[in-house]
C-alpha cells in the first residue's frame, strides 16, 4: 500500500478558499497512491481560535465538496484532515472527513479529546463520543486527531474494533515536537499497528508548527519522516506486517482488562 501524507503549510496571508483549491491540486497529484492524508484544521490553522466560528461549515460544506471531488479525480482514499464543523443543532466540532476513491464520504470523526485546558478548542468545540474505524482494501484505519495521540485508551478501543493502521492528522506545535515523535512511536509499538501521523508546517496564529509528519511500523521503526516545511511524504508499506507482528510477538493477547483500582494501605 502506498500512502502520501501532505504536510500543508498554513500561511495566514492565504485565504481559506485559495488554500482549498491549492490542497485539492496537491491531492490530485497523488493519483498513484492508495491513501492520502491531510493535517488537522488546515483550512484555518489549529491555533487560530478566532477563526473557528467564522470559518465553520456544515459537514457537507465547501471543504467536503472540494475534497470529495479531489478524492474522486485522484482515485484515492482520502483522509481530508479535519474542519471546524458547525452542527445546526449543537456546538462546533473538530471533525475529520474520510472519502472513498469514488468521492463518497466513508466516515466522519468528531475529535474526542479537545486541547486547551479550559481555553481555546476545549471551550469552543464540542467533544466527540464515538471512536471511528474505516475498512479499506487490505487494512482497517483507526481514526484519531492530534491531542488524541496522548490518550492510549482511545487507541485500544480502535484496535479492539479491528484497526491495523492508525491515522492521526494534527496541528502539533514545534515546542513539543519531541513528544510528537515519541507518542507516535509509542502508539505503534503498544498497539502493534502502523501509525501515519500528518502534521502541518508554517505558523498558526503565531504558533510555529512542528511539521515532521511520520510513518511508523508495528515494531516502532520509523519508515519515513518529513522535515519542517511543506512537503509530501510518500511511503510504501505492507499492511500484512501487522498480523505477522501480532503473531510473532502476541503481547496484545496478554492484556488484563477490568483491573480494580488500587486500595490504600495504612493510615
UniProtKB/TrEMBL annotation:
It comes from Streptomyces bungoensis. Belongs to the carbon-nitrogen hydrolase superfamily. NIT1/NIT2 family. PANTHER family: DEAMINATED GLUTATHIONE AMIDASE, NITRILASE-RELATED. This is Acyltransferase. It comes from the Bacteria. Gene3D superfamilies: Carbon-nitrogen hydrolase. GO terms for molecular function: acyltransferase activity. Residues 1-239 form the CN hydrolase domain. Coiled coil: none annotated.
Amino acid at each position: 500500500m502506498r500512502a502520501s501524507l501532505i504536510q500543508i503549510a498554513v500561511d495566514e496571508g492565504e485565504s481559506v478558499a485559495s488554500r482549498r483549491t491549492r490542497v485539492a491540486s496537491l491531492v490530485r497529484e497523488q493519483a498513484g497512491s492508495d491513501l492520502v492524508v491531510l493535517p488537522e484544521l488546515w483550512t484555518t490553522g489549529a491555533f487560530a481560535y478566532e477563526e473557528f466560528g467564522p470559518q465553520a461549515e456544515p459537514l457537507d460544506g465547501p471543504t467536503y465538496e472540494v475534497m470529495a471531488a479531489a478524492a474522486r479525480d485522484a482515485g484515492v482514499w482520502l483522509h481530508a484532515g479535519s474542519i471546524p464543523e458547525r452542527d445546526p443543532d449543537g456546538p462546533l466540532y473538530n471533525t475529520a472527513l474520510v472519502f472513498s476513491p469514488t468521492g463518497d464520504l466513508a466516515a466522519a470523526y468528531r475529535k474526542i479529546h479537545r486541547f486547551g485546558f479550559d481555553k481555546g478548542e476545549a471551550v469552543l468545540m464540542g467533544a466527540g463520543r464515538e471512536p471511528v474505524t474505516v475498512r479499506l482494501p487490505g487494512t482497517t484505519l483507526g481514526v484519531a486527531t492530534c491531542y488524541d495521540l496522548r490518550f492510549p485508551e482511545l487507541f485500544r478501543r480502535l484496535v479492539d474494533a479491528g484497526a491495523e493502521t492508525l491515522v492521526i492528522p494534527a496541528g502539533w506545535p514545534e515546542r513539543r515536537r519531541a513528544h510528537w515523535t515519541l507518542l507516535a512511536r509509542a502508539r505503534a509499538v503498544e498497539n502493534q499497528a502502523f501509525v501515519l501521523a500528518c502534521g502541518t508546517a508554517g505558523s498558526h496564529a503565531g504558533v510555529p508548527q512542528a511539521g515532521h509528519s511520520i510513518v511508523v511500523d508495528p515494531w516502532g521503526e520509523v519508515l519515513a519522516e518529513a522535515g519542517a516545511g511543506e512537503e509530501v511524504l510518500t511511503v510504501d508499506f505492507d499492511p500484512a506486517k501487522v498480523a505477522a507482528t501480532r503473531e510473532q510477538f502476541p503481547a496484545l493477547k496478554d492484556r488484563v482488562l477490568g483491573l480494580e483500582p488500587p486500595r490504600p494501605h495504612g493510615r
